[in-house]
Amino acid sequence: MHLGQSWTDQRMEETIGNLLRAGVLLSASVVLAGGVIFLIRHGHSPADYRVFRGEPTDLKTLRGICSSAFKLSGRGIIQLGLLLLIATPVARVAFSVWGFAAEHDRMYVVFTLIVLAILLLSLAGFAGPG
Amino acid sequence: MSVLEFTALVWIGAMAAGLLGSLTGLGGGVVLVPLLTLLFKVDIRYAIGASLVSVISTSSGAAAAYVKEGFSNIRIGMFLEIATTLGAIAGAFLATKVSASSIAVIFGVTLLYSAFLSRRPRTKQEREVPPDPLATRLRMNGSFPDAGGMRSYNVQNVPTGFSLMFGAGALSGLLGIGSGAVKVLAMDQAMRIPFKVSTTTSNFMIGVTAAASAGIYLNRGYIDPGLAMPVMLGVLIGSLLGARILVEAETKWLRLLFSLVIALLGAEMVYKGLTGRI
């Protein structure tokens, strides 16, 4: 029983690890593509991050980011890649729910669902008005 | 400085931060925020946003490498993530009420305190402890590969660890870091989990904690794509390199590096925050 459980744990973790790496590589590729476009267009402008201004609406809401990425804006594509990156840990937690359910570990299914609910609630604040 | 030069320099700095962050279980953020604010003179709010993103890439990117070595404990991680994610949301809301200088001082004090705690020596006896009833019921006890084969461990003080994790999450949400330092402390010092298991499980948890506050930060306009791009790509490469080194590295050497780096950065952040230069 104990051996079986740790074996399944190990396999589940490996699958999750590979899933995360794929997600990170995908988001890194999107960020890199956006970065290349951004640098070609703005590479020779002066850099200024000393004063905080906050980002414009099209770079901080889900809809704004999607529409500016669709217009092939370098900054929009980078933000889309970053959104994908934020989604990787969420996917990891969602996948763990399934993993613990496959092990019939109800206690940890509940714990994992609680974590998933907290994550989705905080992200819903992002997708909502603003 | 042009955007191209700035991007190249930040990329190199982020790669170094990612390597260091991965080696010590701190995540890249704890080194990045001081690096960006002190060296590159970036506004601390932009630094926090970029750091938060890098923290996720460190955690997710290195997860597969760690998992294969069998160090991290997914049950401990998942249970404690309840505390860290709730804390992260609380911290992200708190961040709107606090000035940039105060954030710098809190950041510095966090680093100094972590460095102090991590240097406290442990005796051999503390490692061999009887099973704790609560930890046993939560199925947290486990084993990991060591020099002489598999070594098993018994987890202690679950309620203390859980409370510390809420604090770690709040700091993460407030400062935009993974607060791996506090997570490692909670697991290593309070819960008596072996150091390598603590650092790798912490690395696993950091991404989930950061994701809980990332949406709030993005919505607030703290994540600038021009800055986050070289930071994320640099940290990712650095952390993947670091994950390869960790397995062979000595725990003693790691702990020394860990405390030296955070103490230095902590002192600098407190000084700059108190003199109003951040």
What would you note in describing this structure?
The complex is a heterodimer of chains A (130) and B (278). By secondary structure, chain A is mainly α. Chain A is built from four helices and no strands. In chain A, 40% of the residues are buried. The mean pLDDT of chain A is 83. Chain B has 278 residues and is mainly alpha-helical. In chain B, 73% of the residues lie in helices and 4% in strands. Chain B has a two-stranded antiparallel sheet with strand order 1-2. In chain B, β1 and β2 (149-153) form a beta hairpin. In chain B, α1 runs parallel beside α10, α3 (44-69) runs parallel beside α10 (225-246) and α5 runs antiparallel to α11. In chain B, 63% of the residues are buried. The mean pLDDT of chain B is 83. Chains A and B meet through α1, α3 and α4 of A and α1, α3, α4, α9 and α10 of B.
Roughly what percent helix of chain B?
over 70%
3D shape of chain A: elongated
Rg for CA atoms of chain A: 19 Å
Q: Given the C-alpha coordinates, what overall shape of chain B results?
A: globular
Give a quick account of the main beta sheet of chain A: strands, pairing sense, barrel closure. none
Give the terminus-to-terminus CA distance of chain A. 50 Å
Radius of gyration of chain B, CA atoms, in whole angstroms: 18 Å
Largest sheet descriptor of chain B: 2 strands, antiparallel
Oligomer: heterodimer
Amino-to-carboxy terminus distance of chain B? 20 Å
Helix count from the secondary structure assignment of chain A:
4
Series of secondary-structure elements of chain A, N-terminal to C-terminal: HHHH
Question: What keyword list fits this structure?
Answer:
heterodimer, A: mainly alpha, 4 helices, elongated, B: 278 residues, mainly alpha, two-stranded antiparallel ribbon, 2 strands
Topology record:
The complex is a heterodimer of chains A (130) and B (278).
Chain A: H1 2-42, H2 62-70, H3 74-102, H4 106-127
Helix pairs in contact in A: 1-3, 2-3, 3-4
Chain B: H1 3-24, H2 29-39, H3 44-69, H4 74-94, H5 100-118, H6 133-137, E1 142-146, E2 149-153, H7 158-175, H8 180-190, H9 195-219, H10 225-246, H11 251-274
Antiparallel strand pairs in B: 1-2
Helix pairs in contact in B: 1-2, 1-10, 2-3, 2-11, 3-9, 3-10, 4-7, 4-9, 5-8, 5-11, 7-8, 8-9
